[in-house]
Amino acid sequence: MKNFIHFGYLQAISCIFPVIIFGALALSKIVSIPYLPRYDFILIICIVGQIFMLISKLETWDEFKVICLFHVIGLALELFKTYMGSWSYPENAYSKIGEYRFIAVLCMQVSQVIFVKLGEGSTYISIIGHLLFQLQLLALLFILIFLHIITFSIYAGF
């Protein structure tokens, strides 16, 4: 029973940042701030949420470093995909590089936080599995990301 309660606690902690992001998305549809684009408003909320999680120790610095590494990789992939025209971000933002909006990297953090939180220090939970499975999953993700170079983009129409 103790393990079950600890598992529930880890689930709840790993969902704090996703709740912040989804709450920011919903709030940005209701509240409009003059001269502040919606994507930048969401970005500010997410950064404040991230700072809160670090200050309140809901997230450790090691978890933060891992998530930042995910962000750097995600940024490179997003820059490539938007440059290639695989997708675009329809709304304006001040925080952007070319067609890429920084809010996208924070939205990717939703899944990253869950994997980092549940995977770290847990001996009775195996979220992703063994190293071989992780490498196969990583290879499939990169194939999916770069597949449109030799074929068509499967994201077209979404």
What structural keywords apply?
158 residues, mainly alpha, two-stranded antiparallel sheet, 65% helix
Runs with pLDDT <50, length 5+? none
Shape: flat
Give the oligomeric state. Answer: single chain
What are the secondary-structure elements, in order, as H or E? Answer: HHHHEEHH
What share of residues is helical? 55-70%
Total of helices: 6
Portion of residues in beta strands equals under 5%
Structural class based on helices, strands and sheet pairing: mainly alpha
Radius of gyration equals 18 Å
Number of E-state strands: 2
- First-residue to last-residue Cα separation: 43 Å
The strand order across the widest sheet is 1-2
Quick synopsis:
By secondary structure, the protein is an all-alpha fold. Helices cover 65% and strands 3% of the residues.
Commentary on this structure:
The chain is mainly α and 158 residues long. The chain is 65% helix and 3% strand. It is built from six helices and two strands. It has helices at 2-14, 16-30, 38-55, 61-84, 103-119, 131-146, and strands spanning 96-97, 100-101. A two-stranded antiparallel ribbon has the order 1-2. Helix 1 packs antiparallel against helix 5 and helix 4 crosses helix 5 (103-119). The longest helix is centred in the middle third of the chain and has 24 residues, at 61-84. It is flat and about 50 Å long. 16% of the residues are buried.
